[in-house]
Design brief:
Helices cover 26% and strands 0% of the residues. It is mainly alpha-helical. The radius of gyration is 24 Å and the shape is elongated. The mean pLDDT is 79.
């Protein structure tokens, strides 16, 4: 005899969100929603001192 945690199973006709590709969004719409692209890391002391990007 096989025992399972639950006899209920969840089924959905729609696939999970992470399986679906992201819909296309125009760069201007992304800019309006999120603002300009931010750097991954903060600029160092000298970069801030001389205004380098």
């Amino acid at each position: 005899m096989e025992t399972t945690m639950s006899s209920l199973s969840f089924r959905s006709s729609r696939p999970d969100r992470w399986v679906q590709p992201k819909p296309y969004s125009d760069s201007s719409l992304r800019y309006q929603a999120h603002g300009r692209i931010q750097p991954m890391e903060e600029p160092g002391f000298l970069a801030r001192l001389f205004g380098l990007r």
